[in-house]
Design goal:
single chain; 3 helices; 127 residues; mainly alpha
């Protein structure tokens, strides 16, 4: 009878340990999945920023090339448009530099702000 009690108690302890271990493993897997998802979001936004910066560089280059042949009365407006693009580019570069420093709590707000900036820039470039 004592052996049966010991075996029963041992079985319960082993079962409890197995349950705790699998719960712990599941929690760890969920944490890894959340970290991977966050990495994907960070990398995705980083790529979007880099692409937008490249587009702005191309637009600036086109403006600079066009300025060589532009009339004096259009140069001022062209220079102003180029200056605005450079300011937007600096903003995006600043965002790109800050991307890794945001906490999880700050991330959603930061991501929304950057996406709004990207949309605005894309609309302006297409015009």
């Amino acid at each position: 009878m004592k052996i049966t009690g010991i075996l029963f108690t041992s079985g319960i302890l082993l079962f409890a340990a197995a349950c705790t271990e699998s719960e712990s493993e599941r929690a760890e897997e969920r944490m890894e999945e959340a970290a991977d998802e966050m990495d994907d979001r960070v990398n995705g936004l980083s790529e979007e920023l880099k692409e937008a910066i490249d587009e702005i560089d191309e637009e600036i280059q086109e403006i600079e090339n066009g300025m060589e042949n532009a009339a004096d009365n259009t140069k001022e407006a062209t220079e102003e448009a180029m200056a605005k693009l450079k300011v937007k580019k600096e903003k995006l570069e600043n965002d790109l530099n800050q991307i890794g420093s945001k906490t999880k709590e700050e991330w959603n707000e930061f991501e929304a702000k950057v996406k709004a900036e990207l949309n605005e820039i894309e609309e302006n470039i297409e015009d």
